[in-house]
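Researcher: I'm preparing a figure for a lab meeting and need a structural model of a single chain. I don't have an experimental structure, so a prediction will have to do for now. The sequence is pasted below. Please return the structure as tokens so I can convert it later.
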Amino acid sequence: MSSEATQGQTADQYGQLHPAETPELLAKKRVEFEEELKTLPRKKRKSFEQAQEKCPELLTDDFKLMFLRSEVFNADLAAKRYAHYWDKRIETFGP
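Model: Understood. Here is the structure written out token by token.
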């Protein structure tokens, strides 16, 4: 990979590249994440929509940012992981 392609990115201990977390990047990716959540099929949105109704204080931007970081800011994958998290949380602990 060229140095130009990796500019502004840092590697973790496993060699995976991570972008520099600028305020602009975070704002852009949060918007993309929210848009991706809206495009998920209704069945996949059911659990986190239930969480929005019953415990909105848990659905903070910082909480959602954990999912973006875990998928190296790929909003599509982060939204799917977030929806899966809420499915499993409700399955485990109940509504």
